[in-house]
Amino acid sequence: MKKLAIIGAGDLGQQIAYHVAQDNQFEVVGFFDDFAAQGTIVKQIKVLGKLKDVGNYFANKVFDEVIIGIGYKHLAFREDLYNSLKNTIPFATFIHSSCYVDASCSIGKGVCIFPGTVIDQQVTIKDDVFINVSCTIAHDSTIDRHTFLSPRVAIAGFVNIGKRCSIGVNSTVIDNINIADDVQIGGGTVVIKQIEKSGLYVGNPSRFIR
Ligand SMILES: CC(=O)SCCNC(=O)CCNC(=O)[C@H](O)C(C)(C)COP(=O)(O)OP(=O)(O)OC[C@H]1O[C@@H](n2cnc3c(N)ncnc32)[C@H](O)[C@@H]1OP(=O)(O)O
User: Fold this and answer.
1) 187 close to ligand 1 (CB < 6 Angstrom)
2) Residue 206 pLDDT class (50, 70, 90 cuts)
3) Strand partners, 195
4) Residue of the nearest CA to atom 31 in ligand 1?
5) Distances 210 to 30, 179, 186, 198 between C-alpha atoms, Å
6) pTM of the predicted model over 0.95
7) Any residues with CB less than 8 A from the CB of 144 and at least 6 apart, and which?
8) Which atom, in ligand 1's list, is nearest to the CA of 133?
9) Nearest CA owner, ligand 1 atom 27
10) Interface pTM (ipTM) of the complex?
11) How many CB atoms sit inside 10 A of residue 138's CB?
12) Ligand 1 atom nearest to CA at 72
């Protein structure tokens, strides 16, 4: 079994560690976190070091692959971190075994998909996307890099979601919609029109608030 390290020992990192271990896909060997002391035990998993230490631990074969457990409030940081490591450290792709992902889909590196998600035909999920529990992504849609889907997001067919977007819990995006980069969607939002500029959108139908 491959050995996995997780960057971020906070809530999201801990949830990833739980699902990965419970699903028996990787052996989780430790966290890297700039805000937790080296050697601290978090949910029975050791903090191996800071982010600057990732390369050394990989060189010493402590882990085989890494995944990022940094949440939706820090997507630009996530992108920088991913780009700084991607040429030297292998990123894991974790798809919980309870998900249905059609064989025609393309799933990038560093992608993490929590239990119960359904992804239909010809969907593209680019690198470092995080998808929380029970999302539905219908056919021919694309989720671009470093985007975060909260629980139970529903995305219809032929939808394109940009980079570094955060889609709130239980939101809906109807078919043939394009959402720009750096868009944040509040919980329960219903998107029925194109979103062409970055910012925060809420409500049914969605409206720009800032
Ligand atoms: C496993 C997990 O937990 S993953 C994380 C899941 N979490 C989420 O999905 C959270 C999504 N976050 C939200 O929905 C938040 O309300 C945000 C980010 C949209 C806005 O938060 P804030 O910046 O604090 O905005 P604030 O609460 O001041 O609201 C601004 C206005 O938008 C409205 N508003 C805020 N959120 C929503 C919403 N989800 N739907 C409709 N209206 C909303 C407010 O009523 C307010 O309207 P008003 O100016 O007419 O009074």
Assistant:
1) yes
2) very high
3) 179
4) 209
5) 39, 16, 12, 9
6) yes
7) 126, 129, 160, 161, 162, 163, 165, 181
8) 1
9) 186
10) 0.97
11) 19
12) 5
For 155-196, write each residue's pLDDT tens digit.
999 999 999 999 999 999 999 999 999 999 999 999 999 999
How far does residue 151's CA lie from ligand 1's centre (Å)?
15
Q: Is the peptide bond before 115 cis (omega within 30 degrees of 0)?
A: no
Say yes or no: CB of residue 142 within 6 Å of ligand 1: no
Task: Give the domains, in start order, of the chain with CATH numbers.
Answer: 3-85 (3.40.50.720), 94-204 (2.160.10.10)
CB of 180 shorter than 6 A to ligand 1: no
Cα distance between residue 8 and residue 117, in whole Å: 23
Dihedral pair phi/psi, residue 136, rounded to 5°: -130, 125
Closest by Cα among 132, 134, 133, 164 to 147: 164
Name the nearest CA neighbour of 126 among 104, 148, 111, 115.
Answer: 111
The angle subtended at Cα 12 by Cα 116 and Cα 149, nearest 5°, is 50
Residue nearest to atom 36 of ligand 1 (CA): 186
Q: Say if residues 192 and 210 touch (Cβ distance below 8 Å).
A: no
